[in-house]
Amino acid sequence: MSTQEADVSASLFVNEIPKWGEPSAHILNRPSLLECLSDYIRQVNLYGYRPDNRKVLAVRSSDRCVTLRNAGTPVRQEVYYFIEGELFPEEGTTRLPEGRDAEQLAEKLLTERYEQLSIWTAYDFTKGSPPGFRKPFDFPPVLKGSSDPNPEGKSRGSGVKGVNPLFFLPDPAPISAGESGFLPDVATGEILRYVTALVVTDFRNALPEGDNLPIWDAPLVGIASASDPLFERFQDPEVVGPGHRLPHEWLPGAQSIISIFLPFTKEITRNYTKGQRYSAIEFSSGKWNGSKFLNVVRRALLRFAEQHGATAVAPNIDPRYDSDGWLPFWSERHAAFAAGLGTFGLHQNFISEKGCLGRLCSVVTTLKLLPTIRTYTDIYGYCLYAFDASCHACIRRCPTGAVTDVGKIPGRCEQHGNKEHFKGWGYGSCGHCSTLIPCSREIPARIRNTITNNGEEPV
Ligand code: SF4
Ligand code: SF4
């Protein structure tokens, strides 16, 4: 590549992620942001004060420049933030006070919110913890995991004939029970209605390509108590690891964890067939663009907590989020397991009552909520392989051999070639091991029947 070509490509893609606290973050183009905000303030204050709930700030991934838009059909490689309600949750923030001009107010508001918006954009474009963009915890991890969880250094076999004895590791999790006479700050049904309304109405829940198919279906909500001993258990090396932070480390005074499972719509997987080498484009796009929407849900839950007089932290979009190799500081799947939403499968995806074709997000909050009762004890309770040594469908579906009968080989998915195949689109996720298998859209029937028969084998 010539120097000139390199200069052009460098100007097209902003990959430089600032270190935490760097004064000039490259993640957002500040002058364009200031201009948009000034325009917006001017417009809504022109004839009296009329805030416009349709207006969004659109950030382009190529140069991180911002434009002012009406909420509408999403465009590829852009992210959107509502000005009213999302960027400025407090009503009347954009009202122009007597004697001030729009630029002055925009500058003031931007100074207050710029870092926050930088963080959002960084996470929305990188789908996870952007390297370098990390604010360390102020204290070392509080370790409470059992010091010797596996004294003989051996895995606990499942005891099911035909299952590789090296497969199972953890002990059964206790069934969680609700407290009697417990008065939650908010009913779980209200949280479910709130997130469902967001999924159904928010324009960002759509593919930017083709007919703009919806990405996510109605969610499931589960609640875990922040004092559930499972969170300490997650720190054991055989579970997540000592880097997994406890709820109160993310948020002092934490009472509950709200975990959400969002299932992919049927449209996202309708073109997936068993014979294809690469994922369907709808699926690859859905995973990438759907991840941005997961952050919309996380941020909405932060606002929900605030509206109810509490606070919340979403670990996966918190600048302190990090990982130790493949071991994260917060695991959405483990949080969901604690919150009664489901269990793991042999493919290591999460199987909820709506199957494994979906994604998870969560927040830690000071709201006191009623924990969802866990109806399972085994970490692989909804997987047919663990149940009766049958199935193996996910092993057969995996083109790289990453799924084995003792679990998944970390990093092997990278060899699939999907990223190269979808390079021009900027996507890359392979989804073979969660599509067209018995646990894709439900708890496999044999297990479901056993659960509904209260543990008795179905006749
Ligand atoms: S495809 Fe079968 S073996 Fe694999 S996780 Fe699902 S139920 Fe378990
Ligand atoms: S994502 Fe693809 S490569 Fe990775 S385990 Fe699943 S099927 Fe295999």
Helix/strand layout:
Layout: H1 3-12, H2 30-44, E1 55-60, E2 66-70, E3 78-82, H3 102-126, H4 188-201, E4 220-225, H5 230-233, H6 247-250, E5 256-263, H7 266-269, H8 281-307, E6 312-313, E7 323-324, E8 327-328, H9 332-338, E9 342-344, E10 350-352, E11 358-365, H10 384-388, H11 393-397, E12 403-404, E13 407-408, H12 418-421, H13 445-452
Antiparallel strand pairs: 1-2, 1-3, 4-5, 5-11, 6-11, 7-8, 9-10, 12-13
Helix pairs in contact: 2-3, 3-8, 4-8
One iron/sulfur cluster (SF4) binds at residues 397-400, 402-403, 413, 416, 430, 432-433.
How does this structure look, described?
With 459 residues, this protein is an alpha+beta fold. The chain has 2 domains: 13-126, no CATH class; 188-452, no CATH class. It has 13 helices and 13 strands. The strands form 5 sheets. The chain has a 4-stranded antiparallel β-sheet, with helices on both faces. A 3-stranded antiparallel β-sheet has the order 2-1-3. A two-stranded antiparallel sheet has the order 7-8. The longest helix is centred in the middle third of the chain and has 27 residues, at 281-307. It binds iron/sulfur cluster (2 copies). One iron/sulfur cluster is lined by residues 345-347, 383-385, 391-394, 437-439, 444.
What compounds are bound to the protein? iron/sulfur cluster
Strand content: 5-15%
Q: How many helical stretches?
A: 13
Q: State the low-pLDDT regions, or none.
A: 1-13, 455-459
The strand line-up of the biggest sheet is 4-5-11-6
So what's the overall shape? globular
How many structurally independent domains?
Answer: 2
Structural class: alpha+beta
- Tell me the major beta sheet: 4 strands, antiparallel
Q: Provide the helix percentage.
A: 25-40%
End-to-end span in angstroms? 68 Å
Mean pLDDT: 88
State the order of secondary-structure elements, H for helix, E for strand: HHEEEHHEHHEHHEEEHEEEHHEEHH
Oligomer: single chain
What's the count of strands? 13
Gyration radius (Cα, Å) is 23 Å
